[in-house]
Amino acid sequence: MPVLHVAIDPVTRIEGHLKVEIAVDTLNGVQQVVDAHCVGTLFRGFERILAGRDPRDAPIITSRVCGVCPTSHALAAVLALDRACNVLPPETARLMRNLVHGACYLESHLLHFYLLCLPDFIRGPAMAPWQPRWDVGDRFDAATAALLLQHYLAAIDMRRKAHEMGAVYGGKLPHTPAYIAGGFTAVAHAEGNARLQALLTEITAFIEGTYLPDVERVAAFFPEYFTLGKGCGNLLSFGVYEEDAAGTSKLFRAGRMPAGAAGPLPVDVDRIIEHVRHAWYDQATTGLNPAQGETVPQYPKPPGYSWLKAPRYDGAVYECGPLARMTVNGWYQGGVSVMDRHRARAHEALRVAHAMETWLAALPVQRSAYVPCALPATAETAGLTEAPRGALGHWLRIENGKIAHYQIVTPTCWNLSPRDDQGTLGTLEQALVGTPIQNVDQPLEALRVIHSIDPCLDCATHVVRPDRIASEREGART
Ligand code: NFE
Ligand code: MG
Asked: Of the residues 64, 68, 319, which should be mutated to test ligand 1's pocket, given the most ligand atoms within 8 Å of the CB?
């Protein structure tokens, strides 16, 4: 049989614009993926938008990179600005930054499992957003399927409450304006703390009593997914949730675990470079560390096939995200697979919720969360953190008081990179190879692998009304 080429275009139930092309062949009697290309299909150019602007605009503008992880971008930007100003945020700011970021994690993880992934496993009712759909089969007994569906609906409410929780001090979500160099704009108050605690208690109970058991329910019916979707097996975390003002101690430590390593190794960001041979950027800009990196689009450009660059650490491919964070910290001991990603993400959600409890208990009321600080005319700095999907870095150079250079490397660039200059496949591309495919017209198994890594190609906060014509739909954007 000839090798079949299949495109999933667009991949839905993700954030952003993604096409995945797979080649399917029969090896040893099993029809399976033998090659894969991940194609980011939209150029956005935030790094170019930032050039020449006031550095204090960076948290506000970069937060618009994405509607699912805006808080992480705002945080990365202010961490870079704090360093540029040579200021340490007060304790109150550290706690409020952590709390709003934590709310973002909980919202994102609930969204991912229930709204983005569960429809790959259960059939759901014959209505939107469950239709049109691929045939997911009917492994679940009727009672379990009904329970999961009920929890899917409950998760929508929990997600809203997680956003509300972040908005108590974030002011609004997504795209909080509260993260500023030198601290945080809000002042905590008794009523806010009580509101936050009430929401946190409810969401924590949902994670513990519903989300974690639901992951185990799905895992019990789909055990083969503990062996599928492995990828490169190298795990990377920049560390997140400052436990002291300088960020020398973090809830999730920084570290990396190359496949087979006995324990985590340190992360030296100087060893990161981005390749662009297979991305639509000028080849003269390949192999640069983000501190020097450039964003020079060139389309078309053979052999480019994606708008994502290919970040590499010491030349190697890495996976980042909840599984990487949890494994690097020794809090998850499993493999690297579709189900390990779901399980680690759910356990991480509970850990973050518990940590939020301690930050909230320590948060003093009616105390300023800001220390006045001034930006220097010249600085070179970086802000590193972890977004829900993994390692996030902002690299910033200030000249004449303006942004002279800005580079962002997102988790999805690590996880969905195209091939690098050596031709080595990106993490998800590797994870797809070897995935058995029953029906090439509906490569559901590949979709489960893709979704497990939680791609975010970019984000815009859109409302789509399929009953409206295109021009009206434009006006319906929020
Ligand atoms: Ni748009 Fe994001 C996260 C970041 S992944 S969701 O988490 O940074 O590119
Ligand atoms: Mg970039």
From this structure: 68
Q: Structure tokens of 320?
A: 């980042």
| Structure token digits, residue 190 | 């008794």
Q: What pLDDT shows up at residue 458? A: 60
Sign of torsion over alpha carbons 470, 475, 476, 477: positive
pLDDT tens, residue by residue, 113-129 = 999 999 999 999 999 88
Give the span between the Cα atoms of 17 and 3, in whole angstroms.
26
State whether the beta carbon of 410 lies less than 6 angstroms from ligand 1: yes
- Nearest ligand, measured from the Cα of 290: 2
- Report whether residue 40 contacts ligand 1, using a CB cutoff of 6 Å: no
Which pLDDT band, with edges at 50, 70 and 90, does 476 fall under? very low
Which residue do the tokens 């991480």 mark?
Answer: 348
The strand pairing partners of 24, in sequence order, are 4, 33
Closest ligand 1 atom, residue 387 Cα: 7
Contacts of residue 373, defined as CB under 8 A and 6 or more positions apart, other chains included, come to 82, 85, 86, 87, 181, 182
For 66-95, give one letter per residue: b (16+ CB within 10 A) or e: bbbbbbbbbbbbbbbbbbbbebbbbbbbbb
* Cα angle, residue 466 at apex, residues 461 and 470 outer, rounded to 5°: 80
Region of poorest pLDDT, from 79-93, 338-352, 444-458: 444-458
Residue 94's φ and ψ, nearest 5 degrees, are -55, -45
Torsion on CA atoms 342, 343, 346, 350, rounded to nearest 10: -160
Domains, the chain, in order of start with CATH, read 4-477 (1.10.645.10)
Q: How many CA atoms lie within 13 A of 323 on its CB side?
A: 23
Planar angle of CA 159, 164, 168, nearest 5 degrees: 150
Residues at Cβ < 5 Å from ligand 2 ion: 408
Compute how many other C-beta atoms are within 10 angstroms of the C-beta atom of residue 295: 22
